């Protein structure tokens, strides 16, 4: 059984919540809040392209969740299960030089896409974040929009909301959510086939009309059956309003 099963079970419920309920954390113990750190390599001299970095972050997040160490007898299973059972928080931070090399020693997986690198780390309590992570900045750097060209065929599509502005860090967290939700609804054979590609996916910003036609929030179960489409709905702790749909993912 995949560690993502609880996510699949509550997907439609989450999309149906009133917007104000998505940000309600009254049932949480602050000392037990858990998050997955996603580290984005952003060297000053050679910054990556925005799209490639988001694609690397999206792949890295799901690679951790579907790694063999995440299976029931694996060393990563309990930390991942504790995280997925609660709110799926990710915190994207930027690193370069020695700081980037330091996080390679922490449990996680690094993915490279077209020269851009991102490393998703094993989730844990926010209060217990190692110094190699806590010293990294969350905000302060941005990457310009790019023109990535046509999306490759046969890989999942991650579509960013064209009506919502997000920093590269916020976007990295959101596309990581998208690959997790998508994988939670795929069957075992489909997940294995995706893993064979290194969890390759495409990140694009569609025209507003395309976004609105695909957005599954009114009928999440039907949209999945008909079109293989899922949505990320954000709690609204940072940058966007509570209940905002930030990313639509479509199976390859």
TrEMBL record:
Which reaction is catalysed here? an N-acyl-L-alpha-aminoacyl-tRNA + H2O = an N-acyl-L-amino acid + a tRNA + H(+)
- This chain's source organism reads Amycolatopsis regifaucium
- Identify the InterPro entries for this entry: Pep_tRNA_hydro_II_dom_sf (IPR023476), PTH2 (IPR002833)
Q: Name one GO molecular function term.
A: peptidyl-tRNA hydrolase activity
Enzyme's top EC category: hydrolase
Instruction: Give the UniProt keywords, A-Z.
Output: Hydrolase
Q: Name the EC number(s).
A: 3.1.1.29
- Keyword rRNA-binding part of the UniProt annotation: no
One Pfam family name is PTH2
- This chain belongs to the protein called peptidyl-tRNA hydrolase
